[in-house]
Write a structure and sequence with these properties.
The chain is an alpha/beta fold and 188 residues long. It has a single domain, classed as P-loop containing nucleotide triphosphate hydrolases (Rossmann fold, 3-Layer(aba) Sandwich), CATH 3.40.50. The protein is built from nine helices and five strands, in the order βαβαααβαβαααβα. The chain starts with a strand and ends with a helix. Bound molecules: adenosine monophosphate (AMP). The site of adenosine monophosphate has 17 residues, from α2 and α3.
């Protein structure tokens, strides 16, 4: 399975990514997690990414694309992968196309987890209290939602145009959402 997971911040992508990765026995690749690990480790990549992440902006495409290309060159993606948080704009989607054609593989599905912005704002503010992520403050959440709406949301049409889009309601219990996703994927 080669899966792209889309959805606004706070829709539950990370949680569902972990479950789907286990279910389909594929690695979940979260660009946000890779960036956060590099920020914590104070690596050159982390230093490049940090200011953008703190502002709720996208890390520049050349940095992000190179990082994903490296990751997709590793052996563990041979049997599939799930991308969580990438692509995040149309240029990244085109870049991903190039990476996949170099690897001579194709995506199976783009799953969009939908949730309205009031709901996700409340979830992110709740998560801030538990995880203490520095980008889960109200002004940065607002910015991240705006970035999603303007830069990432056009990917819905992009993947729909390729016949790869599946939309799943992200409201409800975690298990329920997982079952909805699996049912939708299996109905493909
Ligand atoms: P996430 O954990 O997916 O919400 O990502 C956290 C932050 O990492 C985002 O707000 C961006 O600053 C950065 N980031 C993650 N994925 C990407 C991407 N595909 N392109 C650019 N920036 C990204």
């Amino acid at each position: 399975m080669r899966i792209v997971l889309l959805g606004p911040p706070g829709a539950g992508k990370g949680t569902q990514a972990a479950r789907l990765a286990e279910r389909y026995n594929i690695p979940a690749i979260s660009t946000g997690d890779i960036f956060r690990a590099n920020v914590s480790g104070k690596t050159p990549l982390g230093l490049k990414a940090q200011e953008y992440m703190t502002a709720g902006a996208l890390v520049p495409d050349e940095v992000t694309n190179a990082m994903v290309r490296d990751r997709l060159d590793q052996d563990d993606v041979a049997s599939g992968f799930l991308l969580d948080g990438y692509p995040r704009n149309p240029d990244q989607a085109v870049e991903l196309d190039g990476m996949l054609s170099d690897l001579k593989v194709k995506l199976d599905v783009a799953i969009e987890i939908t949730a309205d912005s009031d709901e996700v704002t409340q979830r992110l503010l709740g998560r801030a209290k538990i995880e203490g992520r520095s980008d889960d403050t109200e002004p940065v959440i607002r910015k991240r939602l705006e970035v999603y709406a303007t830069q990432t949301a056009p990917l819905t049409a992009f993947f729909e145009g390729r016949g790869l889009l599946v939309q799943v309601d992200g409201l409800g219990e975690i298990d329920e959402v997982t079952e909805r996703i699996v049912a939708a994927v299996e109905a493909l």
